[in-house]
Amino acid sequence: CEILSSLPLQMSLYFNVYFFPFWWLVTVAILYLKYPVLSDYYKFILVTIMILVSLTELIRLYLGYVGNLLEKVPELAGFWLLTLLPQLPIILFLLFNEGLKIHSLERAVHIVFAAFLSFQVIAAFFTLKRMVNTLAARFRLTEFHRLEEQRPGPG
Q1: Is 155 within the bounds of a domain?
Q2: DSSP of 35-70, one letter per residue?
Q3: Which residue segment(s) compose the domain that 88 sits in?
Q4: Is 38 helix (H, G, I), strand (E, B) or coil?
Q5: Is 2 inside a domain boundary?
Q6: Distances in Å between the alpha carbon of 66 and those of 79, 100, 106, 124, 152?
Q7: Which tens digit of pLDDT belongs to each residue from 3-60?
Q8: Helix, strand, coil % (nearest 5) of the chain?
């Protein structure tokens, strides 16, 4: 009975749970300060991004915890997809778009958050690969034993 969950991924999720509120507070505070000088479409984009990231991050962290600790492939796959598709591109947009008038503190917290997301994408991929291969092997062994029991005896 091999343990398939990943300790590095779980540690990253644990620290991400504590970092995310700090990231959110810093980002909202800086958004409040620079809001009057932003153009209208950047105002709309940033508010939409904050709402989207807040909701997605809560779901993403829950799926990561459940998928990794309970070794559930669908939840971990959902975590991986939510990390890879909406979260990472959004953080990279916030980090590299100079039209947003990025503050140095904002850039620093975005870099840390992007590092968390990048590490989690890689760690979750290898954890998923190991889980799927092990579960497939268990399934094949179970099927083999079931077929062996159904086979008629000699004579």
Answers
A1: no
A2: GGGS-HHHHHHHHHHHHHHHHHHHHHHHHHHHHHHT
A3: 7-150
A4: coil
A5: no
A6: 9, 35, 30, 13, 43
A7: 889 999 999 999 999 999 999 999 999 999 999 999 999 999 999 999 999 999 999 9
A8: 85, 0, 15
Q: Which tokens hold the place of 143?
A: 């099927």
State whether the Cα torsion 85-87-91-93 is positive or negative. positive
Q: Is the residue at 1 inside a domain?
A: no
Per-residue tokens: 11: 């540690």
Q: Is 120 in contact with 57 (CB distance < 8 Å)?
A: no
pTM tops 0.85, yes or no = yes
71: left (phi over 0), alpha (psi -120 to 50) or beta: left
Task: Please return the burial class of 84, using the count of CB atoms within 10 Å of its CB with bins 0-12, 13-18 and 19+.
Answer: middle
In a domain, 70, yes or no: yes
Dump pLDDT digits (tens) for 63-87.
999 999 999 999 999 999 999 999 9
> What confidence tens digit (pLDDT) does each residue in 101-147 have?
999 999 999 999 999 999 999 999 999 999 999 989 888 888 888 87
